[in-house]
Amino acid sequence: MRGALGLLVVTACGSRAASPPPEPPSNVGVASPPAGASCADSIIDTTRAVDGPTSYVITTDELVARQIRQRLPEFQLCYIARAKYEPELRGRVTVRFTVQKTGRAVNIHTFGFDADIDQCVCAKLSALTFGSFDRDETVEYAFLFSPGA
């Protein structure tokens, strides 16, 4: 598994099916968003100063990406659940959302290759808290899912 800011490669090991895979049950791997969360089908470059021995500026995207990477196993489950039924399934899920001042992700928009994976990623993202900010921040993050070697 390789990660990079804004782009994440997620792999899952699986064997190749000799025959076409069975149809998955409806909503496999799909978690429902928490009450009040909105998952639907905009990007601001924002920065935050970090004090320390040497001050530097870190973007909101970087802060959010770090926290998403810490929870990769949760997002991998979205892909793994679907890949059981389609071992060659692969693609990108781009997520745009607003992190409120309270750290809650809202106005989540997923643009991906599989509706079930999109919904699952949205639900997991809406359950995260990203810390507090001076103002609402809009962020974009991309996941790249592909089968293991």
Question: Can you put this structure into words, describing what you see?
Answer:
With 149 residues, the protein is α/β, with parallel strands linked by helices. It has one domain: Fusion Protein Consisting Of Minor Coat Protein, Glycine Rich Linker, Tola, And A His Tag, Chain: A, Domain 2 (2-Layer Sandwich), CATH 3.30.1150. It is built from 3 helices and 8 strands; from the N terminus they run βββββααββαβ. The strands form 2 sheets. A 6-stranded mixed beta sheet has the order 1-2-8-6-7-3.
Mean pLDDT: 73
Q: In whole angstroms, how far apart are the ends?
A: 11 Å
The major sheet is characterized as: 6 strands, mixed
Helix content: 10-25%
* CATH topology annotation: Fusion Protein Consisting Of Minor Coat Protein, Glycine Rich Linker, Tola, And A His Tag, Chain: A, Domain 2
